[in-house]
Amino acid sequence: MSKSKFYVVWTGQQPGVYATWAECKAQVDGFPGARYKSFESRSAAEAAYAEGAKPYIRSGSAGNAKKAGNPKPGAKPAGDIDYNSISVDVGTRGNPGPVEYKGVDTATGEVIFSHAPIAKGTNNLGEFLAIVHALAHIQKEGSDKSVYSDSVNAMKWVKQRRVSSTLPRDQSTEEIWTLVDRAVQWLETHPYSTKIMKWETRDWGEIKADYGRK
């Protein structure tokens, strides 16, 4: 089972330390400029609350709510975001090129897992690996989190349990194809009920795991 966490709300409806995500979410959901973060123990959370948000929350980072404004027609409000989730994204330098990925806590921006750069791959293959890694992590932890990705192709490949990429299989791409084949095998042998959802970049800004390389 996943470990218990404690949540600090520095800026929200009622600042304080909370023992569940549901209690924390009630304080920050839809609150302009909300500042909050999870900790592994109550003592760490209480110390952080007393110290203040500045050492723990980077300016403009996750844990600060998107500023309120006039939504675009048909836009999905930030209140629709499921913060009990892992957001994944890929960092690339060239496509194809070196690929790395990570998964973060959507609520706090805390990195949950990351994979070191793979010598040569594509953005979509990296996104696929990130989603499967998140699914495996959630299943291993016995968590009820969902997964966010901003890649429609990768989400489709996960659903179909196969990839459709034009990246050649050769010595330069052996590393990523080995990982992709392993991920496909995991999907074929591990039924899952985790919800995989599209991150609405147009309405919500960049996904919380974004590498900032655009």
UniProtKB/TrEMBL annotation:
Coiled coil: none annotated. Residues 60-78 have a biased composition (Low complexity). Residues 76-214 form the RNase H type-1 domain. The keyword Transferase does not apply. SUPFAM superfamilies: L9 N-domain-like (SSF55658), Ribonuclease H-like (SSF53098). Residues 60-81 are annotated as: Disordered. The keyword Membrane does not apply. PROSITE patterns: RNASE_H_1. It is found in: Cytoplasm. It catalyses: Endonucleolytic cleavage to 5'-phosphomonoester. Its EC number is 3.1.26.4. InterPro entries: Ribosomal_bL9/RNase_H1_N (IPR009027), RNase_H (IPR050092), RNase_H1_N (IPR011320), RNase_H1_N_sf (IPR037056), RNase_H_bac (IPR017290), RNaseH-like_sf (IPR012337), RNaseH_domain (IPR002156), RNaseH_sf (IPR036397). Keywords: Cytoplasm, Endonuclease, Hydrolase, Magnesium, Metal-binding, Nuclease. Belongs to the RNase H family. PANTHER family: RIBONUCLEASE H1 (PTHR10642:SF26). Endonuclease that specifically degrades the RNA of RNA-DNA hybrids. This is Ribonuclease H. It comes from Saccharibacillus endophyticus. The lineage of its organism: Bacteria, Bacillati, Bacillota, Bacilli, Bacillales.
